[in-house]
Amino acid sequence: MRVATAKESYAADQGLFKTDTQKVWFGLLLAALVLFPLHGSNYWMFLAVLVMINIISTTGLNILTGYTGQVSLGHAAFMAVGAYTVAFFDGRFDTPVLLNLVLAGAVAAFIGYLVGLPSLRIKGLYLAIATLAASVILGFIFLNWTPVTGGLRGLNVPTATIAGIELATPDRLYWLVMPITVIMVLAAKNLFRTRVGRAFIAIRDRDISAEIIGISLLKYKLTSFAISSFYAGVAGGLWAYLFRVVTPESFPALASIFFLAAVIVGGAGTIIGGIFGAVFMTLIPEFLKLAATAVVPWFPDAPIYLAPVRAIIFGLLIIGFLIFEPMGLAEMWRRTRRYFALWPFRT
Amino acid sequence: MTRLSRRAFSQLGLGAALVSTASGRAFAQAPELVIGAANPMSGVFAFAGVEGFEGGRDHFEFVNRNGGVGGRRIRYVNEDSGYRVDNAVAIFTRITSQHQTPVFFGDSTGFQKAINPELNRRGSTVMAGASFASEIDNPQAFPNQWIPGPNYSDQFRVLLRYIASQKRGASVVFVYSDTEFGRDPIAAGEAEARRLELNVVEKIVTQPGSVDVSGDVLKIRRRNPDYVIFHGYVLQPIPEFMAQARQAGMTSRFMGTFYSTDTVLMNRAGAAADGYMGVSCYNFDANAQGAQVEAIRAANVGKTRTHAYYQGWTNAMLAVEVLRRTLAANEELNAVNMMKHARGLKNYDTGGVFGVPISMVNNSFPHGRVYQYSAADKVLKPASDWITISASA
């Protein structure tokens, strides 16, 4: 049983890491992230990069949906804005990678700010449809603003290059994506130790009460939209560097559902939940695919028959989570931690 | 009990050594040639992905039964992409990181465009796939890919040349889906129509899965064109267009490109599809002769295969031929060498899969034929001769 976690100040109680154990685990996680490329094949590096991009995007949506209570079905469109921004600036002006990513986040944040305006009047399903409509409008722009977006053909994205080193392969791109992911996730965690983050939570819990105690709904709802879209924009920019082509079909509305599902499955309103959700939603289909591939030597037609089975299993897993653990993977993680923290006593 | 003398023991040992050496030689095989594929086995394009996969698989089995390529067996590694670009890229990355993969089959234009820079960077893998996009038919931008037939623009040109041969100055309406796939050949089609002095009197854009087409049918009716060409659809909403047009008493002829020209799909549409004309590069003649079509028939007794199956078979056949030529020239299996031999395919006999000997022009094989569907016989019958589009077009 863990003892001596009592805090003597508010600052200590609000610390990013509340116990030494957490600090040790975080150090080990960082070490694992640094050492992972030594052992990961090209494929695993690709998956790692994809997972991290999805973690950034899911964390962004989690800030908006999980922490501020605003539903958005336009998240993938904000990613697309980021991807197009990177493709445009890098392709047209050969601007530095990090500047492109900041611009991707900034442009997406601005668009997100505008899209968030209806959130002052509407919420819930109505807001979801409004954000979906915004994504349709953005899709139309991607398709028809040909001088900037390349229209139907889209834009090819140059290889990310930092200090003359081409990040052409996932194992190299990892060194760009991994630190950005760690910084952005920590920044999100930190956000909820600030006045702004607490305002978001207050709005989520009861917006009328929040307004009564002096929280400006206008300011904070739009800030939440902007921050969430900034995350999506950066994720979209990294996505563009990974796939190196952006077309109007790269970010369908279904991708927004993917991120919403990741937030719910992982656990809305917790940073670790966004991480778990993104990892789950990205890797489970991949593992199911590996399982299907493994039986091919004995069952050559497996790809035909197992493909729909895979989709069904994935769907059932999501439904299972919603039924048996509506608080998501984060709650399971919390229970596990509590078990070890309180052992030998029952939780 | 018979005692084993030292000499007998030595003889047995020698014999065993000889047998083991001989059997060792017999079992020593050249390494397999791995061909990777990302096919959509689930999702909206699963119907085509499964057929495409089976076409490739059946051809490779046929090749392996007949001794492989230069004595090396083909191993076909396929995974379900779900028709998603990121999935297909993941599959490409995984398969190529696990195996040396000289040839890879892609599932879509989006994926083939997305992976192109990586393909060029690696220089070790060539790609073919499900896409007939005109953009990919460009050796400068896509030096390591080929299209297993005519690109969409050339398919349009085949249809328009057929129309010009039937009626001078005919009026034509283009109906296409509001997708990258749908818009691909429209500009080239308009240019070709002008050259042939045909009148494109209307262009109608619809959603790809559109079902309520009454307004669009009204537009066509107002124009009352000689021909209506559909593009960018798999099947829907073509039968609905045709049924409503017939009810309205229109006499226009309806036509379509590759993915909407298929016996299986037409059979599903039934009587509404009667008289529909479409372009294909593959030979649907039941009496076609040749080693490849006979192998297709042998592998599919009692089955009717879709276009996608033929496409999968053709991609596999071309891949095998390219590998065979590269290995026969004793050259390394890299993209430069393989594409050199792919571009060397001139007047290549496809064993009946195409009705004419084929030649690669740019990255494609610009040969096509117009077929007409007969609902009574449930078959596509040739309506034109084979038409080849020259590079200058």
UniProtKB/TrEMBL annotation, chain A:
Domain of life of the source: Bacteria
A GO-annotated cellular component: plasma membrane
Protein name (Swiss-Prot/TrEMBL): Amino acid/amide ABC transporter membrane protein 2 (HAAT family)
Signal peptide: none
Membrane-spanning residues: 21-38, 44-64, 71-91, 97-117, 124-145, 173-192, 222-242, 254-280, 287-306, 312-330
Coiled coil segments of this chain: none
Main location: membrane
Topology of this chain in the membrane: Multi-pass membrane protein
UniProtKB/TrEMBL annotation, chain B:
Every Leucine-binding protein domain range: 34-360
Keyword Coiled coil: no
Keyword Nucleotide-binding: no
Signal peptide: 1-28
Gene3D superfamilies recorded: 3.40.50.2300
Pfam families, sorted: Peripla_BP_6 (PF13458)
InterPro entries in UniProt: Leu-bd (IPR028081), Peripla_BP_I (IPR028082), TAT_signal (IPR006311)
UniProt keywords, alphabetically: Signal
Coiled coil regions in record: none
Assigned protein family: Belongs to the leucine-binding protein family.
Protein's name according to its UniProt entry: Amino acid/amide ABC transporter substrate-binding protein (HAAT family)
Organism of origin: Phreatobacter oligotrophus
